[in-house]
Amino acid sequence: MKATSVKKCLYLLAIIACLAFGRSVQAQYWSGDPNYPPYNNTIDDTEPGPYVWGAIRGRSANAMAATNGVLYAAAYSGNEEGDYGSWEYSGFLAEWTKCAGWQYPASVFRTTTKGTNDVAVIACVYLNGYYLYVGGNFHTIAYTNTYGTLEYLLATNIAKLDIRDGAWSTVAGNTLEYPTNAYCVQAINMDGSGNLYVGAAAALAGTDPTLQTNTLKIWNGTTWATVGGGLLYPTYLENEYNGPPNGVTALTWVESDLYVGGSFVEVVNGVTPTVSETIAKWDGTDWYAIGANYDSAIGFAYNLQEPYVTSIAQLGTNIFAAGFFFSTNWDGTSLVTNGLARFSTVTGDRIQEALSLGWYYPVADGMTAPDAGYGLGLLAFDGQIYLSGLFNQIYTGTNIVEATNIAVWDGISWSGVGTGLGNVADYPLGSPWGASLATDGNVLFVSGNFTTAGSVAVDDVAEWVPNTEGFCTARQIAAGEDHGTLLGFDGTVWGWGGNGYGQVGGGLSPSTYPYVSNPVEVVNSAGHPITNIIAVAAGHGGNHSLALQSGGAIFAWGAGYDYQLGTGSTTDYDYAVSVADLPTGSANKMIAVAAAFAWSVSLATNGTVWQWGEVQIGPHVGTSFITYDYPTKLSGLSNVTAIACGLYHALAVSNGYVCGWGWNQQGQLGNGTTTSAATPVYVETSAGVYLTNVVAIAGGYEHSIAAKSDGSVWAWGSNSDGELGDGGTTSSSYAVQVETASGYLSDVIAVAAGEYHSLALDSNGQLWAWGYNADGELGDGTTTQRLKAVPITTPVYPLSIAGGTAFSLIVGVGEFYSFSSWGSGANGELGNGGTTSSDTPLSEIY
User: Residue 587: helix, strand or coil by DSSP?
Assistant: First the structure.
């Protein structure tokens, strides 16, 4: 560790993890019963195996997507009263985590006048990186912003959600409107070049025959175009009851080939149609029929209903299609295709003609009657294909497999998934069924209409989980001088590392526990965990920590020698205490916290900044300072959206500009001088030219970092160890742009700063580091100083990043949520149970 007699501080302005915890949205349970817990920890222990059923209580979803322990589900609310008012016939999007339960990111609707019959629905969801695309039939999205205020976005039939911060935005310039481009978006996917493919419902043939080819569109970043010559649909089934054809309902990539499912009967190359009923392949240039050696790819309509493919999944050289395609004479033994088909990706031919789903349902005399089943969901998970739908038998041509509404194919044969999905009061008047499937790579989620999964009682949503105990994991992380602070998804806080002032916060006496190498839960004076926390901060050198509660209250613990805990005293606490005398009123509700050496800062809803503790303003530390015993409003600053702290300086973003105040010996305030300031001064890139459009900030020992909306990164202040990342070691009182070996660092969405090193996270999940590295704090496998940003390989997908004195921390995505650490471990600051340092990131240690 680099020797210094001065204590250091850092505040991490972390990016928001998938729950977007800054939003003031209360957890809601789709079942409507407030006594239902968000997760009841019930698993099916009657069927031991590598996977078991776990209970989630929810509502049947039209579509689902999952990532990093978070499930996103779209449903139709009918005319129920919801979070955003009584929007009749509206749809909504909800998100679920094991510890936080259900929350509503948004509702969608087509009119702003209640009482109309213009049905709004989210029909599909598609997750790509940090963006969740939603498609359906809507023109407006209602959601709560970061400050808890209801907002509306005009978005026609497609929009995207940034899962980090809950921000909604339009797609393709909001040009996807019926009848020009799309009636109802039902499938979304993206190729490796970023081109967006959108499948939609077909228009009525009598309206405009040309629209029948218009159900699969591609957005290349500039314009919409029809894929090839488009798709053609039958008209013989179109009537008042059936309405228009179902259109395109499934899109799946297999390497460079796009498999498309729906209700079409022909594909068009140029002007020449080719028969390929309900499933086809697009190779980027031409359409190809699937199952071309058969009269039709899959089969006939059942009871004159339109046949269509609902989902497609691939495993090896096998393509499976599920949907509504039946024989009119199915009797439980016929060698016909019902609801499920299998094809070769090599030849396009049907591999197994006799592959049928059967449904035996109860009748009045207590007997059962055969009927055709159907498939709804297909998904590749854990090296196998999972199928959901309405069935209790799968006929393979040689044998009958018992499987209730969900089944799995292991590459050789089909089998049931536990005892399946069922009950619904034993369905005398209805039938249980499985619909949507989703996975985050670790858990399989299923939704539909069922009340049991195996032996577990559920409500329409369940998870097929590894037979190990799940746990609530992290959504934000912060680093102090030699301690770490972690915010769990359940709103609890955990601490570890140096504990000389009680900064770990577990009620552990510093004299008995000078350091703690494993995370312990932060508690209050009664020994109870603090809860409902939405953000944390750790003082880099000041050995104290802060936690912000959802209602705006702030807890503090650790060193209090300069009033930095906000209690009006200089007492140290090894447990969390409440910051006193915070301003009252909804406009003054606190929404962010930051921590310096002996100084704490908070941000209120109205954009004002409050501070307490010791603010250094003299030319030398200790020569001139201002002390605030209790939270005091900072004058001269408004409309603030972000705050951060360095060792003895603080930063804020106001109207897109960065300003700083406090100690400025190395130019860390960025205003072209080395004069300290008690009130905010604005950061410049050169004399009179201000740094603008800033979205993220961080402070180090004597340097500062900012990321702009264009993804560029800028730094200023001390550069003795390359912490500015401009290729040199000359300090700068103006902001300079951070470089890599091949040019300027770009696409950055989050930044963090340690004592003499810096970190950045780009939109692709790549972590970058530069600066001092004697303790391996950069994580590149060396102890070599880096004057420009270098990429760091991490064992988890980073979401929240933090830099301590000589170590680094990330919250990432691995098996469930987990965090990784590297650098100095002498005081247990890596949180892995030891005191050994590491120059590479440790794997999933929480």
Answer: helix
Distance from chain centroid for Cα 681: 36
User: 284 in the Ramachandran plot: left (φ > 0), alpha (ψ -120 to 50) or beta?
Assistant: left
Q: What is the DSSP letter of 384?
A: E
Bridge partners, residue 407, by sequence: 387, 416
Max Cα–Cα distance, the chain, nearest Å: 94
> Rounded distance, CA 343 to CA 364, Å?
39
Torsional sign, CA 72, 76, 82, 87: positive
DSSP state of 530: P
Where would I find the beta strands (DSSP E) of 58-109? 63-67, 70-78, 90-97, 101-109
Confirm whether pTM is higher than 0.90: no
Q: Give CA separation, 84 vs 88, 91, 107, in Å.
A: 11, 11, 7
CA distance 693 to 699: 18
Kindly give, in sequence order, each residue whose CB lies less than 8 Å from that of residue 688, ignoring residues fewer than 6 positions away: none
DSSP per residue, 690-729: E--SEEEEEE-SSEEEEEETTS-EEEEE--TTSTT-SSS-
Q: How many residues does the chain have?
A: 846
Tens digit of pLDDT for each residue in 440-492? Answer: 887 899 998 888 888 878 878 888 877 544 344 677 899 999 999 999 877 88
| Contact present, 646 and 10 (Cβ < 8 Å) | yes
Instruction: Quick: pLDDT tens for 287-309.
Output: 998 875 333 444 444 444 567 88
Taking each continuous run of H as one helix and of E as one strand, the counts in the chain are: 0, 70
The tally of CA atoms less than 13 A away on the side-chain side of residue 82 is: 27
Sheet with 308-315, strands from edge to edge, namely 308-315, 318-324, 340-344
Enumerate residues 6+ apart whose C-beta is below 8 A from 209: none
Distances (CA, A) of 534 to 59, 103, 653: 26, 14, 20
Return the DSSP state at 364. T
Tokens representing 669? Answer: 């305030």
Torsion of CA 826, 829, 834, 839, to 10 degrees: -70
Separation of alpha carbons 581 and 539, rounded Å: 21
Radius of gyration over every alpha carbon of the chain, rounded to an integer in angstroms = 29
CA within 13 Å, CB half, 747: 10
Using the CB atoms, write b or e for 203-230: b if 16+ within 10 Å: bbbeeeeebbbbbbbbbeeeebebbbbb
